[in-house]
Specification:
Blueprint (H helix, E strand, L loop, with lengths): L4 H18 L3 H14 L5 E5 L3 H12 L3 E5 L7 H7 L3 E4 L1 H7 L2 E4 L6 H12 L3 E4 L9 H7 L1 H8 L4 E4 L6 H7 L8 E6 L2 H14 L2 E6 L20 H8 L8
Parallel strand pairs: 1-2, 1-4, 2-3, 4-5, 5-6, 7-8
Antiparallel strand pairs: 6-7
The structure holds NADP nicotinamide-adenine-dinucleotide phosphate.
């Protein structure tokens, strides 16, 4: 679903209410509602933290869809080949530059790094929508994610950040090869606790060439965590919804 201008304007009216309710800085909320307003008509500014297999693959899909994308890592010079090949809408930078640039961010670093990346950047990311693609399975945080949930664990390391689980549930090659295929498109499961962030994530997933399937809250992201039966499917939304035991979107 594309966010309508009307709903974006409605969201602007909610800024003051949300500021009071959440304690978030007004500037962060204005930034978010600005993203929602832009989704109706204009390309977005998107950044990736991490530009390896997954960050490069999904970021490339957004560039091809007409968005401006800043790919970041600790070594942005190494990303020159990637961005040069993608043209004027792609650039490389540091993580700080990514956070300043992106209206929305894709987090695509090894899960092992989450405590450090969170400690370094959560404050700067506060109020931003972050699509969290990390899988914890091969990290020392796996036990924690098993106990508390992977989305909940990410949120713990990124307090105040509007986390939506997305793009974690398939190999990057499957995203590249299945994006924008003829209907029915491949579904990408997403989950989060923040309704407005979920709407923005839906727009970004759709723009990358997939049908977003909202599975539920951050805790519900465990239904499509790596290693579960909900992981790794290349299915239309109706079939993936049946597999995950959730309602398929009415428009598909
Ligand atoms: N590969 C897939 O098919 C796939 C699919 C779904 C989900 N995922 C998840 O996506 C995440 C990334 O996987 P990947 O396969 O893309 O890994 P990768 O190819 O090793 O790339 C990791 C990226 O993160 C950067 N990075 C590492 N530590 C960092 C830090 N502390 N701060 C900033 N950037 C850092 C790396 O660049 P520098 O070392 O230069 O900083 C690199 O750009 C993982 O959590 C993985 O579970 C991967």
């Amino acid at each position: 679903m594309i966010m309508t201008v009307q709903s974006a304007l409605y969201s602007r009216r909610r800024v003051l209410q949300l500021t009071a309710a959440t304690g978030l800085a007004t500037s962060a909320l204005v930034r978010t509602t600005s993203v929602m307003a832009q989704t109706a008509s204009a390309p977005l500014k998107i950044a990736t933290i991490g530009a390896g297999n997954l960050g490069a693959a999904v970021g490339t899909l957004w560039v091809k869809a007409g968005h401006e994308v800043l790919f970041s890592s600790r070594n942005p010079d190494n990303l020159k080949g990637l961005v040069d090949g993608l043209g004027a809408k792609a650039r490389a930078g540091t993580v700080d530059e990514a956070i300043a640039f992106g209206d929305a961010i894709l987090l695509a670093v090894p899960y092992e790094a989450y405590p450090q990346v969170g400690a370094d950047y959560a404050e700067k990311l506060k109020g931003k929508v972050v699509l969290d693609a990390g899988n914890a399975n091969r990290s020392s945080l796996f036990a924690e994610t098993q106990e508390n949930g992977v989305g909940v664990t990410t949120a713990k390391y990124f307090p105040g950040v509007r986390i939506v689980r997305a793009f974690n549930a398939a190999n990057h090659r499957l995203f590249t090869s299945n994006a924008n295929r003829p209907a029915p498109r491949m579904a990408v499961p997403i989950a989060g606790d923040d309704a407005e962030a979920l709407e923005i994530a839906k727009t970004l997933v759709s723009s990358a060439g997939f049908d977003p399937l909202v599975v539920g809250s951050l805790k519900d992201a465990d239904k499509f965590a790596m290693g579960t039966e909900g992981f790794g499917h290349v299915l239309p939304a109706v079939e993936l919804a049946a597999k995950l035991g959730v309602l398929a979107p009415a428009n598909l």
